[in-house]
Design a protein that fits this description.
Strand order of the largest sheet: 1-2-4-3
Shape: rod-shaped
CATH architecture of one domain: 2-Layer Sandwich
Number of strands: 4
CATH superfamily of one domain: SepF-like protein
Oligomer: single chain
Radius of gyration: 33 Å
Number of helices: 5
Strand content: 5-15%
Structural class: alpha+beta
Helix content: 25-40%
């Protein structure tokens, strides 16, 4: 369209050609809302946790390999000989430190070793419970 065509249309001399606009299909509102709530988690990976009750020190290397493969290790040492348990804890603590991971004692003879891609956080109640224990009368600190 040139300038003269626009001028003739503005003066009302030329006919205005109407273009046919294709109509879009009508979609019910609830279908649109349902699809809007979907979130793609294609990048999400499943997290694997290795739970182990070792009885020999030789099992520590497999657990260290799990840490190297970015898996968390929960270690239950309730049925492990005390000397073997110390060696395993020392070995896994060194491995965790070398991998910039974290170690956390979960309970009596139960430990969590986490690689660097896992952050261990504790609830504030647990921090207070472990740092200060008050007597029943509310005075002082029990040690």
């Amino acid at each position: 369209m040139g300038f003269l065509d626009k001028l003739w249309r503005w003066l009302g001399i030329a006919e205005v050609e109407e273009e046919e606009v294709p109509s879009l299909p009508i979609v019910e509102n609830r279908e649109v809302n349902r699809k809007a709530n979907l979130v793609s988690l294609q990048g999400a990976k499943t997290v694997k946790v290795v739970v182990s009750e070792p009885t020999t020190f030789e099992e520590a290397q497999d657990l260290a390999d799990s840490l190297k493969n970015r898996r968390q290790v929960v270690l239950n040492l309730n049925r492990t000989d005390i000397e073997i348990a110390r060696r395993i804890i020392d070995f896994l603590s060194g491995t965790t430190y070398a991998l910039d991971g974290q170690t956390q004692k979960l309970g009596e003879n139960i430990f969590l070793f986490a690689p660097s891609n896992v952050e261990i956080s504790r609830e504030p109640r647990m921090l207070m419970r472990n740092s200060v224990t008050y007597s029943r009368s509310g005075f002082g600190r029990e040690e």
